[in-house]
């Protein structure tokens, strides 16, 4: 994967509201229903928008995030839909799943992780476990360069407010507005740690169950910032040059769960074409858990989303009512209904998958 843009200003990755999922032109039912397998059940289900599946609503709450077996089940029932909302495999003729969890055996996945020093030839690589399924939950070893920024206020627990990308064993790139300026400590607190190797904030180590095999990541890694270097021409009023580096102590050797992302080696505009799918990831605000945590809930689990690249002329016209003009080095992605990044994802990367690198 190649980082195209790091300073995502307002980053929610997740589902749509029920009214959004039901809107749009009606199509014959035989054109919209896809049969799909459900773990632990003999009968197949139907691939539907998650908001219209009562069985999914019952099991998808924030308490499930701490259950390895439940999260693993939710990952397995994600399916590819036709609309811009999350789809899940929903049981036919029933409002409940028979056994909504994945069984765990004594087996553990045997990972022979490559542990390499930084090398342009190894950046951006992911293990073979990193599969795109079209859902919103990332794989446990997907995007191993993702960083979570944790902030501290006096007599309060650490809070997550921004993201970032590991670009070497000693540097993370993020948005300047996440680490500098008068409003940072007022709104977020003092930057305390850069967290790496995170997947599920409720568990440590993080584990999932796939094919009856338990797969666990390495322990999360909290590193204090050694130095913060904001772009010298960063303008908080216009958000120009909203990018910064965080120097951290040297990370452990790279593995399936820790690796630097590649930086573009040529003009970004030459790497993408209109409509090309780009990726975003993070733990930002989502409506996935809003029923339990409220509308401003941050996701406890790493999420992912694909967004189409938008050509500069179209993007400029879109932002014209707000008097915002793109500068050199900026690009646009998105424009699809109910799919975007949100608060809490600022500083997270916009990524391009280079199929030649694997």
TrEMBL record:
Gene Ontology biological-process annotations: innate immune response; proteolysis
Localization terms from the record: Secreted
UniProt keyword terms in alphabetical order: Disulfide bond, Glycoprotein, Hydrolase, Immunity, Innate immunity, Protease, Secreted, Serine protease, Signal
Domain notes: The clip domain consists of 35-55 residues which are 'knitted' together usually by 3 conserved disulfide bonds forming a clip-like compact structure.
Family per similarity comment: Belongs to the peptidase S1 family. CLIP subfamily.
Pfam family, one: Trypsin
SMART domains: CLIP, Tryp_SPc
Name of the protein in question: CLIP domain-containing serine protease
E.C. number(s) listed in UniProt: 3.4.21.-
Record GO terms (molecular function): serine-type endopeptidase activity
Transmembrane segments: none
One GO term describing the cellular component: extracellular region
Signal peptide from the UniProt entry: 1-18
InterPro entries: CLIP (IPR022700), CLIP_sf (IPR038565), Peptidase_S1_PA (IPR009003), Peptidase_S1_PA_chymotrypsin (IPR043504), Peptidase_S1A (IPR001314), Ser/Thr_Proteases_Immune/Dev (IPR051487), Trypsin_dom (IPR001254), TRYPSIN_HIS (IPR018114)
Domain Peptidase S1, residue spans: 132-358
């Amino acid at each position: 994967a190649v980082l195209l843009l790091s300073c995502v200003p307002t980053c929610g990755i997740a589902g749509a509201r029920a009214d959004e999922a039901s809107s749009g032109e009606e199509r014959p039912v035989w054109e919209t229903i896809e049969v799909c397998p459900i773990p632990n059940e003999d009968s197949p289900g139907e691939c539907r928008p998650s908001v219209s599946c009562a069985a999914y609503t019952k099991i998808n709450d924030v308490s499930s995030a701490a259950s390895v077996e439940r999260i693993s089940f939710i990952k397995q029932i994600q399916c590819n839909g036709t609309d811009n909302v999350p789809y899940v495999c929903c049981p036919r003729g029933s409002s409940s799943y028979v056994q909504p969890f994945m069984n765990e055996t004594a087996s553990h996945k045997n990972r022979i992780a490559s542990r390499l020093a930084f090398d342009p030839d190894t950046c951006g690589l992911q293990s073979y476990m990193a599969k795109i399924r079209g859902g919103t939950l990332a794989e446990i070893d997907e995007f191993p360069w993702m960083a979570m920024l944790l902030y501290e206020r006096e007599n309060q627990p650490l809070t997550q407010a921004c993201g970032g990308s590991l670009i070497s064993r000693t540097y993370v790139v993020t948005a300047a507005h996440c680490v500098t300026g008068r409003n940072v400590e007022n709104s977020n607190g003092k930057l305390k740690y850069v967290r790496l190797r995170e997947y599920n904030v409720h568990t440590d180590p993080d584990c999932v169950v796939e094919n009856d095999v338990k797969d666990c990541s390495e322990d999360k890694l909290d590193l204090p910032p050694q130095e913060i270097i904001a772009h010298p021409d960063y303008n908080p009023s216009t958000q120009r040059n909203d990018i910064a580096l965080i120097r951290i102590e040297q990370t452990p050797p790279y593995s399936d769960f820790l690796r630097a992302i590649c930086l573009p080696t040529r003009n970004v505009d030459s790497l993408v074409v209109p409509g090309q799918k780009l990726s975003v990831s993070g733990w930002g605000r989502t409506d996935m858990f809003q029923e339990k945590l409220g509308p401003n809930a941050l996701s406890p689990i790493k999420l992912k989303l694909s967004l189409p690249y938008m050509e500069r002329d179209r993007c400029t016209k879109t932002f014209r009512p707000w008097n915002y003009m793109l500068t050199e080095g900026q690009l646009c992605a998105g424009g699809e209904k109910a799919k975007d990044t949100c608060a809490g994802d600022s500083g997270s990367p916009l990524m391009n998958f280079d199929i030649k690198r694997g």
